[in-house]
Design a protein that fits this description.
Blueprint: E1 2-9, H1 15-24, E2 29-33, H2 39-43, H3 46-63, H4 79-102, E3 107-118, E4 121-126, E5 131-141, E6 145-147, E7 175-179, H5 183-195, E8 198-202, H6 214-226, E9 230-232, E10 235-242, E11 248-254, E12 257-263, E13 265-268, E14 272-274, E15 307-309, H7 320-334, E16 349-351, E17 356-361, H8 364-370, E18 375-380, H9 385-390, E19 396-401, E20 408-415, H10 418-431, H11 435-438, H12 452-455
Parallel strand pairs: 1-2, 1-5, 2-3, 5-15, 7-8, 7-13, 8-9
Antiparallel strand pairs: 3-4, 4-5, 6-14, 10-11, 11-12, 16-17, 17-20, 18-19, 19-20
Helix pairs in contact: 1-7, 3-4, 3-5
């Protein structure tokens, strides 16, 4: 049995960087990956999907070009080239990361599937055949998550798509039906509508974006329906059946009434499930929650000392930047002897629909539930000079503020460059910059961030 100082399972956005840092600090480290270097972000998430979002936006701009005096006629979607561009970018990122890992001193990279056979003893089924056993005082689990597939009659009998398999399409679906109007569902739904698909979204809840304020959800609903995307809420798919012509018949209950659809493709976007099953964590005593995610403390350590869980596998939030931050917390605590925790860290995120939705901090609805004395400020993008100039005034900016301390407690920006504008507000929140100070900042003109001045205009005495 090989003895290491540190074993890392999974090369996602926490595992890969952590492996290099630990190895460079002098620890004998092994990184185990069962599939591709880079995890979801590089292979199935951020990199490929945002590449396709860019292609879809180009189609949208071509379609709307006459609005700004440019006439583009008879443009065509070459899905083969769209996919090839995506594949090339993914491979560059994956191969570059793999080479960097292989070149790191004290680091061993192994491809295979890991499972525990004792508390800190791991057996690896090597991809090339054979097995290895190893142990270490420190074990880091960065196994990630995968698409959650609901148990619906007939679903297993059709060639349904997930966020991974849909990225292999080389033809535009004639009619894409999406189960779940969440971030994955809405990004892919809008993307393929712009590529030319008819798109139908089925959402089980009473509205889309259940975690966002109602006004954000309503505005996003309008944005998508304006692009001829059909959205059904209080909708539950109950059955699937393949037709002789190769189409898919879908039975759904919508607001209590049965309705049928015929589509060419089905995308399942009903959430994510942790990849903990194959790890056999029962051999370690590591505790899981009711959904199978690994329970960790605010230092990302499990109930078993020396075993940590980072990224999506610990329940998230399931974002690349959270996984990366998990890595920095663990490394700084273990190697630099700091005392950093996940408590009170701001959790920003961005949904890359067009326009983007960027959000950080608490929502208006959360503030009301807490009984907080807050004020809400909003600025429609139609009042933002830059938005007017580029010809896209969809959406609005919104902030939740404390009128007593004048601190910004939360922000949501649904509009062009929404993620970038949100990040400016996040920096203010992190630095304790109050809205009355931010109001008088000198931002470059004309930029979207400049509109932050006007967002807080009504709050200045």
């Amino acid at each position: 049995m090989e003895k290491y100082d540190a074993i890392i399972i999974g090369s996602g956005q926490a595992g890969g960087p952590l492996a290099k840092k630990l190895a460079k600090s002098g620890k004998k480290t092994v990184l185990i990956e069962k599939r591709y270097i880079g995890g979801t972000c590089v292979n199935d998430g951020c990199t490929p999907t945002k590449t396709w979002v860019a292609s879809a936006k180009m189609a949208y701009m071509a379609d709307k070009s006459s609005f700004v005096g440019i006439n583009i006629k008879n443009y065509k979607i070459d899905m083969h080239r769209v996919k090839k561009r995506k594949d090339d970018i993914v491979m560059d990122a994956r191969n570059g990361s793999e080479k960097a890992l292989e070149a790191t001193k004290n680091l061993t990279l192994i491809f295979g599937e890991a499972r525990f056979i004792d508390e800190k003893v791991i057996l690896i089924e090597l991809n090339e055949g054979g097995t290895l056993e190893m142990t270490a005082d420190l074990v880091f689990i960065n196994a990630g998550a995968k698409a959650l597939i609901p148990d619906i009659e007939g679903l297993s009998e059709i060639d349904y798509l997930t966020n991974t398999s849909i990225l292999e399409l080389e033809k535009v679906p004639k009619h894409l039906l999406v189960i779940g109007a969440n971030y994955v569902g809405m990004e892919f739904g809008q993307m393929f509508r712009r590529f030319g698909s008819k798109v139908t979204l089925l959402e089980r809840g009473p509205r889309i974006l259940a975690r966002e304020d109602n006004d954000i959800a309503e505005e996003m609903h309008k944005l998508l329906t304006d692009e001829q995307i059909d959205i059904y809420t209080d909708a539950k798919a109950t059955g699937f059946k393949k037709t002789k012509k190769g189409n898919i018949k879908v039975t759904a209950t919508i607001k209590g009434k049965e309705q049928k659809f015929t589509c060419s493709h089905v995308l399942v976007a009903t959430g994510r499930a942790p990849q903990t099953g194959a790890l056999q964590l029962d051999k370690t005593g590591v505790k899981l929650n009711e959904k199978g995610f690994i329970i960790v403390d605010d230092k990302l350590e499990t109930n078993v000392p020396g075993i940590y869980a980072l990224g999506d596998v610990n329940g998230g939030p399931a974002f690349t930047h959270i996984a990366y931050n998990d890595y920095t917390i663990v490394y700084r605590n273990l190697i630099e002897k700091q005392h950093i925790s996940t408590k009170d860290r701001l959790l920003p995120y961005c949904m890359f629909t067009d326009p983007q939705l960027g959000r950080v901090g608490i929502t208006e609805e959360e503030a009301k539930k807490q009984g907080s004395n807050v004020k809400i400020v909003k600025l429609p993008m139609s009042h933002v000079a830059r938005a007017i100039e580029v010809g896209d005034t969809r959406g609005f900016m919104k902030a939740v503020v404390d009128p007593k301390t004048k601190k910004i407690l939360g922000a949501a920006v649904l509009g062009q460059e929404g993620g970038e504008i949100m990040s400016v507000l996040q920096m203010a929140m992190e630095g304790g910059i109050t809205y009355d100070t931010l109001r008088y900042f000198v931002f470059a003109h004309p930029t979207y961030s400049e509109s932050i001045n006007n967002l807080f205009l009504g709050l200045v005495d």
